[in-house]
Design brief:
The chain is mostly helical. Helices cover about 50% and strands about 10% of the residues. The chain has a three-stranded antiparallel sheet with strand order 2-1-3. A hairpin with a 4-residue loop joins strand 1 (about 50-55) and strand 2. The longest helix has 30 residues, at about 10-40. The protein is elongated and about 75 Å long.
Amino acid sequence: MSSVIKDYTLQAIRGVKRGTEQSVLETAINVTAQAKDLAPVDTANLKGSIMWKTGSNAGGYGEQGETTSPTLTSGIPKGGAIVGSACEYAVYQEYGTRKMFAQPYLRPAVDMVARDGDLQTAMYKAMFDSVAKELKKK
């Protein structure tokens, strides 16, 4: 009697890849939604411009299937995703300027979604990082 051992390595690799892609996609969508909730400027321009895009060219403004702006396309790692805004002043809201305090919304969103952080801890961390950077300038 001979035993045949079937190799399921390729199926396992495909399953892990699909699961990872789904996790990255869900995380990007959730970070986008959380960042919109935390965005300090209550206008459609900033909140409406926060979007996600994956390395497989899927993208949206919160829900799967919506198209993204072509301006949010650089630096997407293979198998990864980015969340951000093409709005001109988004970076100034996030990091502040020499005339304006930072009002972070994206970094706390990442902490809250990807790292299971709470709002208070996430905001403290983002603000502390911004203040430390400002103090180094002086």
